[in-house]
Queue: 3 jobs
Job 1
Amino acid sequence: MTWCWFAVCEDRPVDALASAAFTADDGRGCGFLVAWPSGHDEPVGAARIDGRAIDPSGGEAAASLALAPPGMSLLFDDIAVSQAIRMALSLPAPDALSTLTQGDTRYVGAVTVVRGEDTGRLNYDPFGVLFPAWRLQVGAGLFADMPAPAGPVIQRYGAGNPWPFDRFGS
């Protein structure tokens, strides 16, 4: 499993693997969504994201970013997190989806990405029940087209990996 560091930043870092400007649909702000490789020193405020969700050549997208307020988190194995994952699996598959984790056990959010005109998938974000979700317009240069997770598996493969990791290494 490969994962990356992921964070919201005011400025675009020069040492990032991938980044894209974003604006919030409700006018709450703008900035950059940024990813660094897992071998990079942990950036301030960063969480782990499934590396398959990141592509420096990825196109523009709409996204829902559910993010814990600073200093807050849930145990990844909390029943509320498991239920949000179940609900996400019951909806049409997005172009990319990953939980955001800190350490081996802490859930701090999720990002759901869709492309094209049908952004209805973002009208309800199950992860937005756990932490406030922002609806974003994200520029090119960050998000991949990721295979849909094999359901109904909702457990992670290895404690330090963000969900949905659904394939075992060879």
Job 2
Amino acid sequence: MVGVYRIGVFSDVHGNAEALEAVLEDGRRRGVDEWLCAGDLVNHGPRPSEAVDMAVRSASVVVMGNRDREVGNDVDEAAMFVPAGRDPAVEREALRWTKTQLSERQNALLRGLPSIATEVRLGVRFAVFHSTPWSDEEYWETGVEANRRRLRDECPADVYCFGHTHRPSVMWDDGRVFLNAGSCGRPRDGDPRPCYAVVSLSRSHGGCPGSVAALKFVRVRYDLESVARDILEKGLPRGLAEALRVGA
């Protein structure tokens, strides 16, 4: 598409470097010009160290997710966030193992990530955060209307990019876009393929700002079984491999 600037948005890598690599390669083939990352680089997956370095090297914007905060700040297991319906023992074992895999440089990098980033591209205002700007644990679906109103009042933007739920979605409201990019490394919507979004901006002409010309979600195939085997070989809980295989 002539005159278009493509922004790729990914979130929730969760230590799955192979999935992120597949997403970045697919984006290159599709002509993605820039990447934004909505956090949660680590935990659950077998290659958190590589995932951290790959994400910060590839994305112009990376914000802090709740797992990044917990790992980077060495949060006690008893204080970690455990989503409803998840096995606390599995979550805590994954956190414990992940903490052993990162260097102090990487921990410092995670600690230094912002909770929200605002950027302007071609006159279009982007706000990037993990779940909401005021909480990295709150699920967007628990208060959609209230969250949308609060974002409009406290954080004016044209495109809001986030993740955390591991389920892709998009809402349009009075010209604003609320984009949940889903999960790159651990989808939970029943489709195990890595997910990311592409926001295409029309380039400005004659001094006028650009606009969102198109938005789409992309699913990517990769060697999922090799990641599942790696999870087991590294002694992580079997449930992580099983959930990865079915997108749960």
Job 3
Amino acid sequence: MKNKLLTWLVVLLLVANAATIAFFWLGRTKQPPGLQGSAARDFLVKELNLDAKQQEQFSEMVKEHRNSADQIRPQIRKAKEALFDLLKQPGVSDSLKLAAAKQVSVQTEALDLLTFDHFQKLRSICNPAQQQKFDAVIHDIIRTMGQPRPPMRPGDRPGPPSGEGPVENRPPPSGEGPGENRPPPPGE
């Protein structure tokens, strides 16, 4: 009698676990790639009340910015990998660490300047009233761009860029690790 009860309890627990996993796995919502960028674009279009011509110009600017940024981001990743590959070498000199960190900074600076130029172009197509509104909301946009993304669920992580190893062999990006707390952006 005890064995039958135990068997039924184990089966019941297995079914409950399978149902829970299926619920979370199948019930998750996938965000399309670039949702954050689309949301920022839509926000700016709405807040600045861009007309059809301005929206068309802005769409072209967004495409150009994405293409250029997509060329810089892998360079940042490579520079960071080169910096942290120095950990494999015993007794790395400070000058070597600084040179590797400088390469990360150079690439990050290029991306920041590209983004600055992008927003400068957007502001230039605005009329004076839109420019005032732009000036009022740009810090909010920049602040949201710098926010860490929420942690991803299993299966949500994008695949590795071409030529890289499997995702599960890489550490989580900064801000996505368990228990990782980030300070608020400056000025808050």
